[in-house]
């Protein structure tokens, strides 16, 4: 094709060149423009968290409708208050299989990844597309079936026999331990190194034994700092040990507690409230299981989040988590503890633990939560006529959360970088905004190692996906690697963000799902926002609005 010299297209190009040359010659005579300020390390973020388009891109049309329906159900008090009775009624009327199918299509499908590791893998990959990582949570937990003996009730040795664990229960705890190790391997293979999984101590030992151990630790005011070495040091100080040798070593750690109790408290405590031989064996087996799980985490470079549970277990749980940190967190943050800010003594506990971590120079790694057992705790305190361990108001819990976070950040400023880590595990927007403000005030980078954010799968997606990095086109990712043009393609935000992704047998997950309903009823405004935003996202998707 020939183009005539005087054609309009050639004229336009020529004219454009003249304009550019003129601009260049003019700008060369002027003073150079001041340099633009460097881009902020704190990216722009909609802290109102009102974008349903950002929140639910990972959800399909049917999932959005299901989410709206589930939150609508959870806002009906009569259903939430009687959920366990309705579940049992549904199983009797519909049969376990049909009831299970319906449940999987509603609440189970919305809040749970699935029943097996195969079910959760597509969900993990889908979350990672939007720069949100999954914390795998094989959600097996137990609660006490009967109240074990206390100071006033433990009067005969026959009473305590009914709480001992039989051989089949020990096997089930071994199986749960293997499941947690499998979870570590799956996290490594699918999510990569430096990810997290969650464990619950009550899945690894008889709850009544754990409660009794917690009671005794409370009575003694016993803390890991009372011993020069970690309990786990005794197990791992030699590379090869038989299980019998480990049993012998753990006996040397736990049995002194038993003797201390008899020596110091014989006037106020009956002998039956001291750990029996059978219960000591259960605790030794628990410690062996925890050691095996932590060693698997070290091998695969996957961290273990020790979840908090009810207050009558929590002193023992915190004791074990701290003992694990003392040994396993010397180089990497393998073990994370959990602090429930709805409890009155949380600030005192976290302060003590921070001081020990600083003294012994191991990595303090923690997750801050409000707490998931408040209604149960308050009801139990009323029924058994003891002081309510929870904060009296929502605002008091908020203040406790802020004080605990401030204490952790204060400790981080006193120590070498990387020796303190904290996860803001909250669905409360004000709490998240407070944490973001602290990060900005203290110049803590979003992609640093000190702070991260987490929420439960199926809840508060509008915060998680706003905080996480936004997905970029492959061409933009390529440009980012080779040129300054990458500044124009920077993600809207780049905070470390996680989703707790529970999975496991449906029957075992019913308590977890019932608590989700209780939480959403208790924080009605948030539940209403979840419901409304699911509906908006569904309408947008249905009528073809641009996502």
TrEMBL record:
Residues 226-522 form the Proline dehydrogenase domain. One of its GO terms (cellular component) is mitochondrion. Gene3D superfamilies: 3.20.20.220. It holds the Pfam family Pro_dh. SUPFAM superfamilies: FAD-linked oxidoreductase. Pathway: Amino-acid degradation; L-proline degradation into L-glutamate; L-glutamate from L-proline: step 1/2. PANTHER family: PROLINE DEHYDROGENASE 1, MITOCHONDRIAL, PROLINE OXIDASE. This is Proline dehydrogenase.
